[in-house]
Amino acid sequence: MTEETSTPVEALQQAGADVPPDHLAINPKSPFFDADKLQRGIGIRFKGTVRNNVEEYCISEGWVRVQAGKTLDRKGQPLTIKLSGPVEAWYEDLGENPPVAKKD
Hints:
Radius of gyration: 14 Å
Distance between the termini: 25 Å
Largest sheet: 4 strands, antiparallel
Strand content: 35-45%
Order of helices and strands: HEHEEEEEEE
């Protein structure tokens, strides 16, 4: 017997809902980067507020990374901070009332 362990986002994807992945980043050097999914446009709601400055998110772990002002690290990449709280994500190209990926 195998025990199925999946995140709520994976459960929605298996059910046929068109929802973004559980973990996604905009940095091409990240292993969680996916240009095709980012091309569609991802909406992020963090702690009940729609945010448009999210660099990376993880729904199952409940965090987002946002840029810390205009500060850059020594490699010239934006310095980011990790904020914890409830995260919801959806594809913006699906119009009004799209399926939302969130942790239950």
